[in-house]
Amino acid sequence: MSGERRRAVIALGGNMGDRTEILRRGMSDIDELDGTRVVIASSLYETPALTMHGIDETVRPYLNAVVIVTTDRNPHELLSLLQTIEDRHGRRRGERWGSRTLDLDIISMDGIELATETLEIPHPAAWQRAFVLAPWHEIDPDAQIPGRGSVEQLLSVATDRVLLYAESGLGARGREGVSTDRGLPLRCPTEGGDAGTATER
Ligand SMILES: Nc1ncnc2c1ncn2[C@@H]1O[C@H](COP(=O)(O)OP(=O)(O)OP(=O)(O)O)[C@@H](O)[C@H]1O
Ligand SMILES: Nc1nc2c(c(=O)[nH]1)N=C(CO)CN2
Asked: How far is CA 11 from CA 109, 125, 129, 181, 183, in A?
């Protein structure tokens, strides 16, 4: 079923397998969803794992990114499509906040506010996670979270660390309207390589 066209913010994260490849493919997969197009994609960021016990430096760090899409799918349809992508990338649903190949969360969708058993928008934890706020701020510095405030302000008080890691590699279209030169050196964009210089915030 298709309906009115909306803008949605989707967060990607994963800490298993070839993280760079999986996040980049995840972005392309989103772009290929029925009725859905990626308008802009953030860089990839490396972030320490947030677990049920807090930040755990002994767990493999995540790569995180955010894309903004336009979609004619309704929120539940979009969630279900995103879950098929997670499954395709070998996602196993187990421990809450446990390691995973690919996690796709709907962070916001235009002005929609909803809370059902299977879907809450805006995402209830996004406002306090730098690993969502930093990539989101990169591609939409004026973004707001209804009821929480500006992404910029929320990011300024978030305490988890975020390292710029690599370009999204989505190509020119994904970078439209965004200055790519933010003065931040990038880390090695391929898995297994030694990390180059990184800028920490
Ligand atoms: N905004 C949302 N985006 C994605 N999933 C959501 C959202 N709101 C609720 N959910 C529900 O959360 C369920 C569990 O998702 P998931 O396993 O990815 O949680 P998690 O990633 O461990 O935790 P978190 O949601 O805090 O990041 C999903 O099956 C989905 O029904
Ligand atoms: N750094 C980081 N930690 C996490 C992440 C994530 O995307 N990045 N996702 C989680 C479950 O949604 C749990 N912990």
From this structure: 12, 12, 11, 22, 23
> What ipTM does the predicted assembly reach?
0.95
Could you read off the pLDDT tens digit of each residue along the chain, which spans 201 residues? Answer: 556 899 999 999 999 999 999 999 999 999 999 999 999 999 999 999 999 999 999 999 999 999 999 999 999 999 999 999 999 998 777 677 888 899 999 999 998 999 999 999 999 999 999 999 999 999 999 999 988 999 999 999 999 889 999 988 875 444 443 333 333 333 333 454 333 333 333
CATH for 6-175, options being 3.60.15.10, 3.50.50.100, 3.30.70.560, 3.40.50.1100: 3.30.70.560
- Tell me which of 12, 30, 71, 79 to substitute to probe ligand 1's pocket, judged by most ligand atoms within 8 Å of the beta carbon: 79
User: Whose C-alpha lies nearest to ligand 2, atom 8?
Assistant: 62
Nearest atom within ligand 2 for CA of residue 61: 1
So where are the chain's domains?
6-175
Which residue owns the Cα nearest ligand 2 atom 7? 13
Pocket test for ligand 1, best of 110, 116, 123 (most atoms within 8 A of CB): 123
Nearest protein Cα to ligand 2, atom 12: 97
Render 54-117 in DSSP notation, one character per residue: EEETTSPPEEEEEEEEEESS-HHHHHHHHHHHHHHTT----STT---S-EEEEEEETT--EE-S
Q: What is the value of pTM for the model shown?
A: 0.88
